[in-house]
Design goal:
The complex is a heterodimer of chains A (328) and B (288).
Chain A (H helix, E strand, L loop, with lengths): L3 E14 L3 H10 L2 E15 L4 E5 L6 H9 L6 E6 L9 H6 E5 L11 H11 L4 H15 L14 H13 L5 E5 L7 H18 L2 E5 L3 H7 L2 E6 L2 E7 H8 L2 E8 L7 H5 L3 E6 L2 E7 L3 H11 L2 E7 L3 H11 L3
Parallel strand pairs in A: 3-7, 3-8, 5-6, 6-7
Antiparallel strand pairs in A: 1-2, 1-4, 8-9, 10-12, 10-13, 11-12
Chain B lengths: L1 H10 L1 H5 L8 H23 L2 H27 L9 H26 L2 H7 L2 H5 L5 H7 L7 H18 L3 H27 L1 H4 L5 H9 L11 H10 L2 H4 L1 H7 L5 H32 L2
Helix pairs in contact in B: 4-5, 4-9, 5-9, 5-10, 10-15, 10-16
Classes of the chains: A alpha/beta (328), B mainly alpha (288).
């Protein structure tokens, strides 16, 4: 039984259109014309309890809109959404007890006060007893290693520490479903790793379901086996991360270092495959996955080669290529 | 002294939480009281960090009070009286007005004027995802000690003037219900104005308009020309905020006025709740 179930989800925004110039401004003031923007188009997917799923897409693809519909902040235009057996937009208290939303660019902690004060308020809001509160804060603070910083005013914390404290505040009620919108935004590499490790541990320890968006592919590769790719409001991929490469980048990169005695002629090299670069004795080719073995054999048989390496193209490049071409 | 005031504030907690509780269970009321207590403990802790602020608030409060006493004194020195009001009776109205000002500065201004920034910064999302009423959260999450001097001076004036008029303890108690209804009406109007920031986003000053109209409550409503009286009774219910509680106190209020004040408060409060839900429909469908 999936914990998140989305069928034909659609969100249409009316957006006021304004012509440039004074005439346009006056027209805009007196008679506004609206155009409907379809931010999310017929999206369907479902997520099982305990899964960690990455949600990918360029800015404006509809990721945040979808997350907001899943958390109940906005009402879908049509389609069906259920999260933990609730309809999110009714925002029932029982539902809100089970979910959390962490936004990398917004903060809920009170700026001038120690994080612990905000945490106490959250504990009261989620109706935790004092014992539960102390125990959970202790546990989460240890997992995040921020025991000492909780008593300092939030404004004195570093960005990384602040994000950790934000996560603590968002997870105090031990939600079953976590929605994260760019949780590592702006963090340095160490803090990013800390956040990832924490999320992994949280997922394993409590069996929580996690759906996260991120622009850092490292987040996705470290955390998620499965990814959803959304582009211009449509879901264009739903499956394993590895499969994403197969589907969108069915090629490998071969780097070859030739022996010095080998004469190198670009025209002949082109016959082996898509020649990407040639510098001195170094050449790189892009070869389709299914022709890989054949090409490598041919290269080794006919040319004097010192070294040969096969690499997968970096996933960032694949993703950005997918988004650039909008291929489905 | 300050400690006492804070203690008094905390004993008032249940009464503030009551209107927001939707499920009529004691459990959730207890939870709301607990949340409220924490909200206030936390903000008071934060405000006491800045002691100079408080001293300045005391000074400005004394200044403001001296000004209005002088204004009132000018009226009565020339033998002008508000129709049917003695000097000391008019002073009661001024005292109640000062208390209301204190209530507004303590409870309303710090919360309701911030709804705008919640909407602008998008942190309203966090509030909406909490399992408590979002109107309760937005209306109560902070208190400002800046209003305390006004509260105290207001009480002093009411008691001083009350002694001259010869009021009993029972009379003071009689004032509480209409005063409470007055505060509830004021809160509801203020909240409704604050809630419009969902649409207009930038309306920092809209509540200032309300505040300056309320200045009219400084003097008995009978002191105004008839047209104004109608306006301040039915459009902006200033009459119910100060004149009605003062009259009740002096045993001069007709039951219809009391009833009117209760009805008005409840209707406005219900309307504010409906209005907030209505406004949220737009927030939730417009923001991305």
């Amino acid at each position: 039984m999936p914990i998140i179930d989305v069928q034909n989800l659609r969100k249409v925004y009316p957006v006021a259109v304004k012509e440039a110039g004074m005439k346009g401004t006056l027209q805009h003031f007196f008679r506004r014309t609206y155009r409907n923007i379809e931010a999310v188009k017929q999206v369907s997917f479902s997520i099982e309890p305990g899964e960690v799923v990455g949600f990918l897409g360029p800015n404006g693809a509809g990721k945040t809109t979808t997350l907001k519909m899943l958390t109940g902040l906005i009402h879908p235009s049509s389609g069906h959404v259920s999260v933990a057996d609730y309809r999110p937009f009714e925002r029932r208290n029982d539902f809100l007890q089970k979910i959390t939303l962490i936004m990398g660019q917004k903060q809920q902690l009170l700026w001038d006060l120690p994080a612990l004060d905000s945490l106490r308020i959250n504990a009261a809001v989620y109706n935790l007893s004092d014992t539960e509160f102390r125990q959970r804060v202790g546990e989460l603070a240890e997992m995040l290693s921020i025991q000492d910083q909780l008593r300092q005013p939030v404004r004195k914390l570093s960005l990384g520490e602040r994000m950790k404290a934000e996560m603590l505040a968002a997870l105090l009620h031990r939600p079953k479903v976590l929605f994260l919108d760019e949780p590592t935004l702006g963090l340095d590499v160490n803090a990013q790793t800390a956040v990832r490790t924490f999320l992994q541990e949280y997922n394993q320890r409590y069996g929580a379901t996690i759906l996260l968006t991120s622009h850092y592919m490292a987040d996705i590769t470290a955390l998620c086996d499965r990814v959803l790719v959304i582009h211009q409001g449509s879901l264009i991929y739903d499956g394993l991360l590895d499969g994403l490469l197969e589907q969108f980048a069915p090629y490998r990169e071969i780097s070859v270092e030739f022996d010095r005695t080998q004469s190198i002629d670009p025209a002949t090299l082109q016959t082996y495959g898509n020649l990407q670069s040639l510098e001195g004795c170094q050449a790189t080719f892009l070869i389709k996955s299914d022709e890989l073995t054949q090409t490598v054999t041919r290269l080794l048989n006919t040319l004097k080669i010192q070294d040969l390496t096969i690499t997968e193209p970096p996933i960032e490049d694949v993703i950005s290529q997918v988004f650039a071409t909008g291929r489905t | 002294m300050l400690r006492d005031c804070i203690n008094i504030l905390f004993t008032a907690l249940p009464f503030i939480a009551v209107p927001f509780v939707t499920q009529k269970s004691i459990v959730s009321l207890a939870q709301y009281v607990r949340v409220l207590k924490l909200f206030w403990q936390v903000t008071i802790a934060a405000e006491l960090e800045y002691r100079v602020n408080f001293v300045i608030a005391v000074i400005s409060s004394i200044g403001g009070l001296a000004g209005s006493l002088f204004g009132l004194f000018l009226f009565y020195r020339t033998d002008y009286t508000f129709p049917g009001w003695l000097w000391s009776e008019a002073l009661v109205v001024l005292g109640i007005f000062t208390i209301l000002q204190g209530v507004a500065a303590t409870f309303l201004v710090p919360n309701l004027n911030k709804i705008v920034s919640y909407v602008q910064e998008g942190t309203l999302d966090f509030v909406l995802l909490k399992p408590v009423s979002s109107q309760f959260w937005l209306s109560t999450h902070t208190v400002s000690l800046w209003g305390l001097p006004d509260l105290i001076f207001g009480l002093v004036i009411v008691f001083y003037a009350g002694r001259q008029v010869g009021l009993s303890a029972l009379d003071y108690l009689a004032m509480l219900p209409p005063l409470g209804f007055g505060i509830l009406s004021l809160y509801s109007l203020w909240f409704i104005l604050g809630a419009t920031s969902i649409w207009f986003v930038k309306i920092y000053n809209v509540t200032e308009v309300l505040r300056s109209l309320l200045e009219a409550g400084r003097f008995p409503i009978e002191g105004y020309p008839a047209a104004y009286r109608v306006f301040f009774t039915f459009i902006i219910p200033v009459a119910f905020l100060t004149t009605v509680p003062a009259k009740t106190m002096m045993g001069r209020s007709e039951p219809t006025w009391l009833l009117g004040s209760a009805l008005l408060a409840l209707i406005l409060f219900q309307f504010s709740r409906w209005f907030w839900r209505f406004a949220l429909r737009f927030y939730t469908s417009a923001s991305s």
